[in-house]
Design a protein that fits this description.
This protein is an alpha/beta fold. The chain contains 9 helices and 4 strands.
């Protein structure tokens, strides 16, 4: 007699009530825990909802505060679950957001088939600093492109055994990691410390990220770098 394969999951009658309770508890605890980090979101959200101008990013800007928590949690789950496969891949590439560039539109980044690369034109630019860290580990960095999946496919052909470090804001990092994962590319990530691109500011300005976390991810994978290199 052939045994019937048990279902992967089986919802009981009280599943939705338990899910409602769990969601309420997570939101209550999470929003309280990150109160300082998320304190300006509601004001921005209300202003974005009342903005009647013709923009192509209204839906993105009109994201309520609980979804920032959801995206942060999704990032953390992806980051933890892909740690081992990330460290096992031979090559690593850092995907860089343009908003980190100190020179913004005047940035002298050079175009390549795999994405634009830093020209090291300004010493105190965050991109330059990240690439100085990357150099010590023999890691390449490319500015992100609008069609991320296409960019990752090209990088995958170039590097074969590939892992990615993505740097992005809370609302986009987890989705980028999912895109990489769908292609079989393990990804870890680092958040921007704050937002400054056109989606969030009438006058865009350079953002920042946690350089020490970027190096921590590389050090965990490759060991201590040669700081004299």
């Amino acid at each position: 007699m052939t045994r019937k394969t048990p279902p992967t999951f089986l919802l009981k009658d009280d599943f939705y009530s338990k899910l409602e309770q769990f969601t309420s508890e997570v939101l209550e605890k999470g929003l309280a825990l990150f109160e300082d980090e998320f304190k300006n979101i509601d004001t921005f959200y209300e202003r974005a909802c009342s903005d009647g101008t013709a923009r192509d990013d209204h839906q993105f800007r009109r994201t309520p505060r609980p979804f920032y928590l959801l995206e942060a949690l999704a990032f953390q789950l992806y980051d933890r679950s892909r740690r081992k496969s990330f460290n096992s891949a031979k090559n690593t590439v850092i995907i860089l957001p343009q908003c980190l560039s100190l020179m913004q539109e005047k940035c002298k980044r050079k175009k390549t088939r795999y994405g634009k690369v830093c020209d090291r034109c300004v010493p105190n630019c965050q991109i330059n600093k990240i690439m100085q860290v990357a150099d010590r580990y023999g890691v390449a960095g490319y500015f992100s492109q609008r069609k991320l999946e296409e960019q990752l496919r090209r990088l995958q052909k170039k590097y074969r055994s590939l892992s990615v470090i993505g740097i992005s804001c809370i609302l986009t990092l987890a989705s980028g990691m999912r895109t990489a994962g769908d292609l079989g590319i393990p990804a870890r990530g680092v958040f921007l410390n704050f937002t400054g691109c056109r989606h969030w500011s009438d006058t865009p300005f350079a953002t920042e990220t946690a350089l020490d976390r970027v190096e921590m991810l590389l050090r965990e994978k490759y060991g201590l770098s040669d700081s004299s290199a």
